[in-house]
Amino acid sequence: xxxxxxxxxxxxxxxxxxxxxxxxxxxxxxxxxxxxxxxxxxxxxxxxxxxxxxxxxxxxxxxxxxxxxxxxxxxxxxxxxxxxxxxxxxxxxxxxxxxxxxxxxxxxxxxxxxxxxxxxxxxxxxxxxxxxxxxxxxxxxxxxxxxxxxxxxxxxxxxxxxxxxxxxxxxxxxxxxxxxxxxxxxxxxxxxxxxxxxxxxxxxxxxxxxxxxxxxxxxxxxxxxxxxxxxxxxxxxxxxxxxxxxxxxxxxxxxxxxxxxxxxxxxxxxxxxxxxxxxxxxxxxxxxxxxxxxxxxxxxxxxxxxxxxxxxxxxxxxxxxxxxxxxxxxxxxxxxxxxxxxxxxxxxxxxxxxxxxxxxxxxxxxxxxxxxxxxxxxxxxxxxxxxxxxxxxxxxxxxxxxxxxxxxxxxxxxxxxxxxxxxxxxxxxxxxxxxxxxxxxxxxxxxxxxxxxxxxxxxxxxxxxxxxxxxxxxxxxxxxxxxxxxxxxxxxxxxxxxxxxxxxxxxxxxxxxxxxxxxxxxxxxxxxxxxxxxxxxxxxxxxxxxxxxxx
Length: 551
Ligand SMILES: Cc1ncc(C[n+]2csc(CCOP(=O)(O)OP(=O)(O)O)c2C)c(N)n1
Ligand SMILES: [Mg+2]
Description:
single chain, alpha/beta, binds thiamine diphosphate, binds magnesium ion
């Protein structure tokens, strides 16, 4: 025993609470926290902007079930980190933002980088606090971590003044709480489980929607058993994709609009009826649709559409309950119904349209041709990070996921700029898997400098792929600097040259002949590589009945 510093106490508390990853930028007063975190065995990743670091921390929460930490300096650093806290809030992902703060004895004096940080974080976090003393800091760390993962997951904020970080204490005087256990898997009452099955049995046109809440709760085995036992058609939300493999015969993804519009009973499994699902309302949904809603948050029940049966609790536990009930009284939805016929017809029609577009060999290329190449070269266990407007909307339909929690994108908040941070988080958690970071040229620009971060940490498993149409939804081939349209970026910008910063390799692709060889070579490099693919500014999605925009 002896004297320990505030930074040591914080680092040990974080490690005790199961924090494994920290992303951030150091400076006064948080440098010692990063150093002590590394000493405590937490993997620290120094970023180029706290926004990207905060997106990485939130992705860690989703991928691992324990919060990632974003560490930022006081004032502007912490403010940048709010971006990730807000993204975590909207996605319901655990994340812990830690902000340094001015020395507490300078409060109100106009101290260096002084800012109302706890107040600034508050609307986006479940818990925001400044420890009231160094001795009680471990108590606050445990509270913060527990709040991020118990109930509906989300972000927490801890505010640490410089004098607390550098303060010294006798180690024997500090109480370190035990690791807070993973959250209890709460179940639904038996009568609700019975009511859910009974409601499904009365459906003419049932549909299951599997969301990222179910993915977060690691419900993949239970959901697969449920879908295969009941033989119900299902649709995955963007990050619910992969909970069951996307090529599953019961997936009706290509007939999404038809399914949403026609369904008379919908079982939501960890998916919210927010904007991504058009609020569950007409004209995208049947005005009389009946909803069975499984959600971790009681407050979510009944949002936008009244709920017929509420299943409040953990998706994995409750789906297990449904499965046990189905073992007692077996039931499945018939394979030959007019509903299935309508869905299958739509699936076949859409598949034919898309297939044709993927084989269009014209120059400049279109999204579908490029995404086909990526699809065909991606290993089945690749982690797909995908953001942009059309780059993401088309990417979601074209790039299959075969495993749960293997897709990361702009999410419920529609945040551009999450891509590189999420890719780095995924590469940190899965060093043995390929991470394909497929970005619109605009999306890439938000955090493009983090290619250097990925290279610095030897993340050769990441390939950055930019689908470049000269702007936000496309821009002109030439620019007059006196009349730049708001959506335009530099035509044919050579983003791939950023790989030269770290001695990596970049590829500039303009034709279908160059495409596959460049992707293959890039994926085999021993440093992260960048493939910059020019496409037509006029390339678009196939005509949609109702577009599923996700940003
Ligand atoms: C933080 C943030 N800023 C701005 C936007 C608005 N926005 C939506 S999509 C998009 C970029 C689309 O362009 P790109 O990434 O090049 O994809 P494309 O559609 O051109 O393939 C932007 C800026 C946003 N969603 N998030
Ligand atoms: Mg673009």
